[in-house]
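Notebook entry, structure prediction.
Reason for the run: the old model in the group folder had no record of what sequence produced it. Starting over properly, with the input documented here first.
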Amino acid sequence: MYQIVATDGRAKSAHMETVHGVIETPVFMNVGTIAAIKGAVATTDLKEIGTQVELSNTYHLHVRPGDQIVKQLGGLHKFMNWDRPILTDSGGFQVFSLKGLRKIKEEGVYFQSHIDGHKIFMGPEESMQIQSNLGSTIAMAFDECAPYPATREYMINSVNRTTRWLERCKKKMQELNDAEGTVNPHQLLFGINQGGTYADIRVNHARTIRDMDLDGYAIGGLAVGETHEEMYRILDEVVPELPQNKPTYLMGVGTPANILEGVDRGIDFFDCVYPSRNGRHGHVYTNHGKLNLFNAKFELDDRPIEEGCQCPACRNYTRAYIRHLLKAKEMLGMRLCVLHNLYFYNHLMEEIRLAIREHRYSEFKKSKLEGFLSKED
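New structure, fully documented this time:
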């Protein structure tokens, strides 16, 4: 059940009840591609840093350890010891990023494993079966994330096929949820809007899929090479065409500034590898921009990454110590940076929700963006 509790302009904050617990939106999903956050972060850590939803990847878990194995072990929640919501993406983005290793057909996609090269086929039914075996809270429909840039003709054909695949996904998910022995018979299905930077194709596709009465709607195929301005323009066109009373998910986005702008346009769900990836390279987020802890100026800096931050790194360690760990290639340095970044993102979402619910989002967004552009003393 998804219920909007406050709006402020186009920004909305909602309360969503799922079989694995409540999600308060806007929410940032912490990306644990293979059922773990890269950077030695445990699910017990995720609770400590305020994670609401963990995101895992259908393709990667199908390849290793295998979705049948996860099912035999009780599903993804039990496997990774996480009792809160999980969203699994469909594998479409990973499959389509394999360029030279795959062939797209109407029935689905034939491709080779990036690990050992063995041949795999994945179509809408296979993606739904894998995600059902994983037992995630929310499953994503199988779609084509078209290349950027793509011709108008290519995009029209791709979007039409994605729509046909979505119909097949919906039918298969209903069958799986009704079947005996299903890990999560209450699994939700989100459809994905595509169309690149062609606003009219996007809008037509949004109108088509909104009539399919899905559990939620994602906007895919952005943050793949277009400018931020182009992305915001597409959101301005598409979000108003999607059901207001259903969750809206902007896939693979993004920076803190991207999130603030997305929320301002009515987005509920976000995910991105930035906080964990940047953290593993010593780049940490603060309210005064991003810091590179490898820089020599932090060698004697006995302050936390950010004053007042309540993450495990900032409560216990200095910039100087974390820099030393990073320089020494000690895994703890990477872990502390990832924990800080994920906490920063999760806490930012808490602040966003409060600002919307107190009807001061516009001023909040302006203040935050100005802070990100500033530099600390």
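Summary: The chain has a mean pLDDT of 96.
The old model has been moved to the deprecated folder.
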